[in-house]
Specification:
The protein has 10 helices and 6 strands. The protein is of the alpha/beta class and 219 residues long. It folds into 2 domains: 140 residues, HAD superfamily/HAD-like (Rossmann fold), CATH 3.40.50; 67 residues, Putative phosphatase, domain 2 (DNA polymerase, domain 1). Strands 3-2-1-4-5-6 form a 6-stranded parallel beta sheet, with helices on one face. Strand 5, helix 9 and strand 6 form a beta-alpha-beta unit. The longest helix is centred in the middle third of the chain and has 19 residues. The chain is globular. The structure holds 1,6-di-O-phosphono-beta-D-glucopyranose and magnesium ion.
Length: 219
């Protein structure tokens, strides 16, 4: 296929559902500190960095921590989160994703990861996708969190494409805003009522046909 386009995938909520493990680990932290929060509140943590997530959670519980304790709690949460990640394998790749990756590979269309997670490479290793990506940009590469477009702009550069040649798949409002602000085509994976700022929205990858993909690659 003749296209100059490239694709950037978010990780959590797009390639795998690690949000459920973040929830379990953050909830244990909150419970250990003597409060709780809901699954609905957890939605607000999607795409948000680790530091900002802990700030939000402490705010919900009206808790203040010293800098030392804050960092200690972040480490405990991550250790607990990683105990779930360690059990992951390729069966956790979300339905329909592999079909799209295979299509991109067959057509020599480069694709990158653009994730806020500092654990992204480890997760990709567990699901056997680490060598599949042309470039991996994660939470260790950026200084500004989504909705800043930095993560996607670095990915575009590593893919040797201009922003307008990039198509971004995202499940978080902040991620859609980042893609839009970066001048890229944004595709939301999730509910229309939350991701309405995306150029296109699908509930999941099983709804995305190869025909649709060919159409946006030609645009
Ligand atoms: P970590 P994404 C994000 O991943 C998650 O959605 C968000 O809940 C998490 O806090 C953030 O990564 C940082 O993750 O603690 O592993 O560095 O959606 O940008 O792939
Ligand atoms: Mg996400």
């Amino acid at each position: 296929m003749n296209t100059e386009k490239a694709v950037i995938f978010d990780l959590d909520g797009v390639i795998v559902d690690t949000a459920k493990y973040h929830f379990l680990a953050w909830r244990k932290l909150a419970n250990d500190l003597g409060f709780d929060f809901t699954k609905a509140q957890n939605e607000e943590l999607k795409g948000v960095s680790r530091v900002e997530s802990l700030k939000k959670i402490l705010n919900w519980g009206n808790k203040e921590l010293s800098e030392e304790e804050f960092n200690h709690q972040m480490k405990l949460k991550n250790d607990n989160y990683l105990s779930y990640i360690d059990k992951m394998d390729e069966s956790e790749i979300l339905p329909g994703v592999q079909k799209i990756l295979d299509f991109l590979k067959e057509n020599n269309i480069p694709y990158a990861l653009g994730s806020a997670s500092k654990n992204a490479k480890h997760i990709l290793e567990k699901i056997h996708l680490k060598n599949s990506f042309t470039a991996i940009v994660d939470g260790t590469d950026v200084s500004k969190a989504k909705p800043d477009p930095e993560v996607f702009l670095i990915a575009a550069k590593r893919l040797q494409r201009n922003p307008e040649q990039c198509i971004v798949f995202e499940d978080a409002v902040a991620g859609i805003e980042a893609a839009n602000r970066g001048g890229m085509l944004s595709i939301g994976i999730g509910e229309e009522k939350t991701l309405f700022e995306a150029n296109y929205i699908f509930n999941d990858f099983t709804e995305i046909s190869i025909e649709f993909f060919k159409k946006i690659l030609k645009k």
